[in-house]
Amino acid sequence: MIEFLAILLLAAAPEDPQKLRVGDPAPAFALPASTGKTVSLSDFKDKKKVVLAFYPKAFTGGCSKEMSGLRDQKAQFDQAGAQVLGVSLDSVETQTRFAESLKLPFPLLSDRSGKTATAYGVKGLLWANRVTFVIDEKGTISAIFEGKDAIDPAGVLSACKTKAS
Questions:
Q1: DSSP one-letter string for 65-97
Q2: What is the pTM of this model?
Q3: How would residue 32 be classed by pLDDT, with cut points 50, 70 and 90?
Q4: Residues whose CB is less than 8 angstroms from the CB of residue 128 and which lie 6 or more positions away in sequence, other chains included
Q5: Of 123, 132, 139, 149, which has the maximum CB count within 10 A?
Q6: Contact indicator for 75, 157 with CB cutoff of 8 Å
Q7: What is the mean pLDDT of the chain?
């Protein structure tokens, strides 16, 4: 039975998308946010860097730790000229409750369709994989952090402080 389920899950898994790399243009998006507004990557072009933090599921341990870590470094992200955005496949209502529960000073975006997660190559079978992209003011990916490296905001913050050459 377990073997059958594994085969079924593999057959249902999405095709392995082309992975984005540092230096690639960041795919455009416009998503509903926990703030009640729609947030687009273009909102920040030529103005701010963007920390686009995909996480699997609101109200889970690792995701709460990751979003809280980004929250606790807000002043330093502000100094680095970076806007933090959290993204998951959760509904806007769930994102709003999650943001309120953690007192997040940045928007959480709802990618219910998974189109943005797919465009960034992070969509799993049921949720987005934990991957954080640092996008420069021109819209180019300047750093990528995956898995446990995305939970600790230190590397992401350091990438935001690094000047593009």
A1: HHHHHHHHTHHHHHHTTEEEEEEESS-HHHHHH
A2: 0.88
A3: very high
A4: 54, 55, 56, 87, 88, 89, 111, 114, 117, 122
A5: 132
A6: no
A7: 89
Whether 47 and 78 have beta carbons less than 8 Å apart is answered as no
Q: Where does the pLDDT of residue 162 fall: very low under 50, low under 70, confident under 90, or very high at 90 and above?
A: confident
- Report the distance separating Cα 113 and Cα 106, nearest Å: 22
Which residues are tagged catalytic?
A: 63
Sequence ranges of the domains in the chain: 20-161
CATH class of 20-161: alpha beta
Tokens of 34: 């926990």
Mean pLDDT of 53-69: 94
- The tokens describing 98, both together, are 């999650």
Give the mean pLDDT of 17-32: 92
